[in-house]
Amino acid sequence: MKRFNDNRNVIGDFIKTYREKKHCSKMELSRKLELLGIELDRFELYKIETNKKSVKDFELIALCIVLDIDFEDLKKLIENY
Length: 81
Fold this sequence. Notes:
- The protein has 81 residues and is mostly helical.
- Helices cover 60% and strands 0% of the residues.
- It is globular and about 30 Å long.
């Protein structure tokens, strides 16, 4: 598996920050994602937030939709990485 600075993704902290701002538990987030057809359990979300799991493009889109993340903010994060 490919890594960048020993991480499998660069958005884990970003996702965690938005989730916590929404006062949403990993279990709640998992349920909301499931309504969009994305199956990520709370342990997988933990692994994403700690940069230990790669994030597929459709998972990222769903996370942005559920957490109301502006794609421009995501773009800025990636540009600054």
